[in-house]
Amino acid sequence: MAKQRAAPSPDKLPLDGQSRWAQIAPFIPFSRETARKLELQGRFPKRIRITERCSLFPNRELHRWFADPLNYRAEG
């Protein structure tokens, strides 16, 4: 019988700073495309474009989203 691994905890994500999708993907229960659609609706943290191919998500906003994903609204 195989051992079940515990789901990763967003507690391991630093409170400050920014993270790329690959760093937060283990904590997010849906695809990158779903996150993009929610972001456009203001229901997921907005990414910060660094270059044409590189975006970062603010960790503080991610932790706000983890705390209450159903009622989260992106600021301004």
Q: In terms of topology, how is this protein built?
A:
Blueprint: E1 18-19, H1 21-24, H2 32-40, E2 48-51, E3 54-58, H3 59-67
Antiparallel strand pairs: 1-3, 2-3
Question: Helices and strands: which structural class?
Answer: alpha+beta
Morphology call: globular
Biggest β-sheet: strands ordered side by side in the sheet: 1-3-2
Tell me the fraction of residues in β-strands, as a range.
Answer: 5-15%
- What is the count of helical runs? 3
Radius of gyration: 13 Å
Number of strands: 3
Point out poorly predicted stretches. none
Amino-to-carboxy terminus distance: 50 Å
Helix content: 25-40%
Q: On the 0-100 scale, what is the average pLDDT?
A: 89
The largest pleated sheet is described as: 3 strands, antiparallel
What is the H-and-E element order?
Answer: EHHEEH
What are the salient characteristics of this protein?
single chain; 76 residues; alpha+beta; three-stranded antiparallel beta sheet; 3 strands; 29% helix
Structure characterization notes:
This protein is an alpha+beta fold and 76 residues long. The chain is globular. The chain is built from three helices and three strands.
What does this entry show, briefly?
With 76 residues, this protein is of the alpha+beta class. The protein has helices at 21-24, 32-40, 59-67; strands at 18-19, 48-51, 54-58. The longest helix is centred in the middle third of the chain and has 9 residues, at 32-40.
